[in-house]
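call fold(seq) -> tokens
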Amino acid sequence: MWFKNLRIYRLTKEFSLDAEKLNELLEAQAFVPCGSQDSVRYGWVSPLGRHGNQLVHATNGYLMVCAKKQEKVLPATVINEKVEEMAQAISEKEARQVGRKERQNLKDEVLLEMRPKAFARSRLHFAYIAPQEGWVVVDASSASAAEELLENLREAISSLAVVPLSAKNLPQQTMTHWLTAPEAPAQFDFGHECELRDPKDSGSVIRCKNQDLCAEEIHNHLVAGLQVHKLGLVWRGGVDFLVDDQLSVKRVKFSDELLEKADNTDAESAALRFDADFAVMALEISALIKDLLNAFGGVNTESASVEEMVAKASRSEAEELAREVEEVVF
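ret:
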């Protein structure tokens, strides 16, 4: 359950649902396995897996949820090969070429035949809501996976006003300044990994792993104009990670001391162990986010949520329509 990635979103409106109400709303979209002709299914499951039946696990005000995505595995090469065989048979039998539209129909037939026999692959995506701090934290390596979870959560509860976390200072410029100095921000030390990019040539990338980031060769690249887009940092609270220019935190590794802190609790069941892990992890991530934001100059609160942008666009359209009406009348 310990998160390996942190996609952090800022709540732009108060999150007022408690665990009981949130669980009730998620039950309407609880996970259902793929049927014979389903290619993908997405729904909510208990964060505790087989050890729990509630779709929300609450600890110290934090609300953990878990989404399950199941997909039928149908290799494109197998499908295309079958379609080609069928098209070839038609061509030989009827002495004609099979067109694009007919090939698409053949592909639909193949999918209809193969889908019930296909293997199903499942993945779990965890996230937790921190209403008291105004965050939603998703354990996802890609933005698309995180947005998919948030979109399904928004659909389940009708409204979820969030925006990706952004800072007042530009991350790439700030990280470049740190490494050029070289001086890590307060509460952090440099790790052993970074990615440098040329702002004038997006294709020019230098990736450094298991390197001394204060070495002269890296400093020379920075002096030449390259900027830091990913940087390995070690938080002195006990977390090793890689942060990028979108403030996405990846490859999170919690120290043995933190893991042992959770293990030292007298948990008599899987549910209590999960609760202890969640409590320790959420508190540490909360402190990490606070120090990370301080390092980047604080939170940028000017960005609007998707809902706010849609509402603003709707108001603008309504105002424009009203002006047009006034021009016609007067």
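The CA atoms of residues 51 and 271 lie 6 Å apart.
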